[in-house]
Amino acid sequence: MGGAMSSNNNNTDDASSASSLALAEGFDDGQVLSLLKSQQVKTLGLSSRAEMEAKVSEIRLPLDLTLVRSDIKNSLRDSHHDDGSYVPLLIRFAWHNAGTYDKDTNTGGPNGSTMRFDEEANDPENAGLGKAMRVLEPIKRKWSFLSYADIWMLAGCVAIEASGGPHVPFSYGRRDFTEEEALQKNSAATGSRCPFGDGRFNPNKSRLPTADRGQDKSAPKGCPMHVLEKPTIDGIRGPFTRMGFTDKETVCLILLGHQYGRCHADVSGYENPWYSFDPAHYNIYEHGLGYLSIYNFGVAQGQHRKRITAQGKRQWEMAFGGGEPFMMLPTDMALWWDPNYQEYVKAYDRDRVQFKRDAVVTFKKLIELGCEDMLTQERR
């Protein structure tokens, strides 16, 4: 970071000018220029810091992130990646960065971009996410006035909308922790720079949920599924409760995320897409079938069959024609096994419009965990 910017503007009562300059405080020249360009301010011929500051003081707040959003959207296609799209990857990336939040200690979450550090990057739950960081690195270089933390969360919002989902309003202002700041923030809870190592519901000590914690071996024979599968259900409810989510919000977030993408045997031990017809697009359609219908027409009807993968993972599959089967993880099945979760799945299946509304609110809550009083919503 460069030195703090000081205003040469004599109008000290101009709150807009003052706040614009405060926004750029500590930016180096490159970051200031990227800020100006993002707001479509002409920068040709600017040669001194004073000239840059004068232009910054003219910026209208809050910021308009249209150009940044556009560049992220243009980076989503890659014919060599799964189903030709980075959409599922970037949604997962945003979720895994934010999903470490602990409301009791106010550690983890989307502020700090601590996945830059080895402890969190090497969390087994984050396998494959290094590619997401590489995809977004050119965005960070071009729009360097934004933190990694902001760009990573914004990418999740853009991916949802660009794939046919709802617009998620974005608020900026997250910070990138230095190693010292990260250690100061997290070491008391985890002993390291990262929110990793103290997870109580994951055998790898990750704060993120694990896909399967197995069955309760002491459960009585013939007991209901929510009793038999209590360890796996607790492995969902525990982390989401730690973050501050209700059961309804938990169901909403899992349904939102798991309509996208596929699993890979060499990454997680699981394989195949959740929704084979269109895994790279928002497919919880307001009218018609789509991913959410699989619960009512598949799981409820006993159409999914358990299969043990070559890596020893249990997953459930429903064949449809000659294509790839629809896959469900134990965490997906848990939304049906648990009576409370199941009620919300059914309610969202009946009212897809309400699901879309709730998805916006809940995803926005996810990417703002622990960021209270530091964010400003973008201008539209």
From TrEMBL:
Gene3D superfamilies associated with the record: 1.10.520.10, Peroxidase, domain 2
InterPro entries tied to this protein: Ccp1-like (IPR044831), Haem_peroxidase (IPR002016), Haem_peroxidase_sf (IPR010255), Peroxidase_I (IPR002207)
Region annotation (Disordered) ranges: 182-224
Residues of the Plant heme peroxidase family profile domain: 72-380
Keyword field: Oxidoreductase
GO BP terms: cellular response to oxidative stress; hydrogen peroxide catabolic process; response to reactive oxygen species
GO MF annotation terms: heme binding; peroxidase activity
Family recorded in the similarity comment: Belongs to the peroxidase family.
PANTHER family: CATALASE-PEROXIDASE (PTHR31356:SF66), THYLAKOID LUMENAL 29 KDA PROTEIN, CHLOROPLASTIC-RELATED (PTHR31356)
Identification of the protein by name: Plant heme peroxidase family profile domain-containing protein
